[in-house]
Specification:
Mean pLDDT: 91
Order of helices and strands: HHHHHHHH
Number of strands: 0
Shape: elongated
Number of helices: 8
């Protein structure tokens, strides 16, 4: 055990953390895809004419938004204990963030001018054609920066997956730190990896927001 900062531990732990980062990145990318697709489906379903569709969807999303991600992960892992933890983590992350991206999509859809809807009806476009060709292209363009920000938030919350034994980066950092008594070094390194990965992405989202705002 070294009272100073052990640079040797940094070099030794880096390959392990990068392997964990691969899992972190995989969970983020796939979780974001789930959140983007499911959130859009929820937003569209929320405009359905039948309360038998809108009420259950609204209640489910309220439940997801009102409970902590950590509780959802542990609960899902207990219910589906035969499923690979990584798959559970990706699904729970996706569903959790779909509850928020659905509101982003809803705002984007509401932001489409009413004249666009009226023009579609005047042209006798089918509902499917209206959504695909007119409404969604405009709505999605407006909400891309917000969706990107949620992806960054999801990336920073992937360490919660460690509680269900997903071997992402923080899991590997904690494991190495416990075995070599090098918590300071390994968690500092993990924090820097998170910073290097997320900060440029956040700058990109700001640029995208400014560009789409004009």
């Amino acid at each position: 055990m070294n009272d100073g900062f052990d640079w040797g531990a940094v070099g030794e732990s880096l390959p392990l953390l990068l392997e964990g980062f691969r899992i972190t990145l995989l969970a983020t990318v796939l979780g974001t895809l789930v959140a983007a697709v499911l959130g859009l489906a929820v937003a569209v379903a929320g405009r359905a004419p039948s309360r038998f569709v809108t009420v259950p969807v609204r209640l489910l999303m309220e439940f997801v938004r009102s409970t902590p991600l950590l509780v959802q992960l542990v609960g899902a892992a207990a219910l589906f204990n035969t499923v690979e933890p990584l798959y559970i983590g990706i699904t729970v992350l996706g569903v959790h963030y779909a509850a928020y991206t659905s509101e982003v999509y809803r705002a984007g859809i509401d932001g489409v001018p009413k004249g666009q809807w009226e023009a579609c009806r005047a042209l006798s476009l089918s509902p499917r054609r209206t959504w695909q060709a007119v409404i969604l292209p405009q709505a999605v363009r407006k909400v891309l920066p917000a969706l990107g920000n949620y992806a960054i938030s999801m990336f920073k919350e992937t360490p919660f997956l460690a509680v269900i034994t997903v071997q992402e980066m923080v899991f590997e950092a904690r494991k190495y730190g416990a075995e070599h008594f090098a918590y300071t070094e390994v968690f500092t390194l993990a924090g820097l990896v998170f910073l290097v990965a997320s900060y440029p992405t956040s700058l990109l989202m700001r640029k995208l927001e400014k560009r789409l705002g004009h």
